[in-house]
Amino acid sequence: MEFVALAIPLFIPVFIYLNSFASVSGNEAVIRVMAREGVRAYTASDSDYSGRIVSGQVIELIAQHLGLSSREIETIDTNYQCSRLPCLSANSRIRLTISYIDSRSHRTIAASAQENISPWK
Description:
It is a single chain. By secondary structure, the chain is α+β, with helices and mostly antiparallel strands. The protein is built from three helices and three strands, in the order H-H-H-E-E-E. It has a three-stranded antiparallel β-sheet. The mean pLDDT is 89.
């Protein structure tokens, strides 16, 4: 009985830490999926303009389906970097970096993904 009385206060911080860690790692998995699918949608489009529009729509749709709150979706920031202009030219590389602010921990969660454009495009 004494062990239980002494051990429970020691385990509470461990449970709190593990819960926080699980939440952050889950959010990082979500943002990686959003970055990967967003850059894929960009490279599958016909032009740079439509690529950014379609990519933004894909990112928002995935965010909604993977459980981000509307407040978190509003904080999503995307940054496209292209090795050549226009971005969809042959042999270019497109890198998409996405970040958002987690509403529970108030941390900025970020991830990047990149795609290479075929030399025959």
